[in-house]
Amino acid sequence: MRAYEKDLNDLLQGAKLKRREQLIVELRNRVGSFDTQISETVQEGNPALGTVTADLQTSSQEALRLLSELETHNWKRVESDHREARRLMRSAEWALSIVSAITLLFSVWVSFILPRQVVKPLISLREAVDHAAQGDDAIDLEIEGRGEVADLALSVRNLIVQLRQNA
Fold it and tell me: Which of 8, 21, 72, 84 is the most buried (most CB within 10 A)?
């Protein structure tokens, strides 16, 4: 009996290194195998072990109760982890929604700014070149801003001035 108790104590002391599921399985196996050994010995007719059987049954019941409590505690922890995972998922979904909305608003804003900054000056430049090609000498290009489009407009204006001087 003392060896059985020592075996269970050793198992519980080493429990920190094992997963809970593995510990539960080992406890059940050891309790069951010890019960079987005692029952077989008692059945063989050893009357000295008759009194030990009751103590063994009590110890087995206590070990099974502790095991059941361990399972309950483990299940509560799993449920808590699931709740926390769901909370994190909701937070991630909100963050993703906010980032998506900001990206959409930025895209819409850029789609309105880009035509004004790039496309509109190019259209004005094309119209001025078309008028100059038709012989309209009163064309005056208004150059606004900086960058490649403004440089191109300046070059076209210089070309038109050169053509007026040569004509």
Answer: 8
Say if CB 125 and CB 149 are below 8 A apart: yes
Q: State the virtual CA torsion across 111, 115, 119, 125 in degrees, nearest 10.
A: 180
Residue 91: per-residue pLDDT? 97
Question: Which residue shows structure tokens 């070309």?
Answer: 159
Number of domains in the chain: 1
Residue 141 and residue 157 in contact, taking contact as beta carbons nearer than 8 Å:
yes
Listing DSSP states for 49-104 in one string gives GHHHHHHHHHHHHHHHHHHHHHHHHHHHHHHHHHHHHHHHHHHHHHHHHHHHHHHH
Hey, what are 120's tokens?
Answer: 């509109």
pLDDT tens column, 85-119: 999 999 999 999 999 999 999 999 888 887 777 77
In the structure encoding, which two tokens stand for residue 41, read together?
């010995």
pLDDT at 51: 63
Q: What is the largest CA-CA distance in the chain?
A: 134
Domain housing 57:
2-166
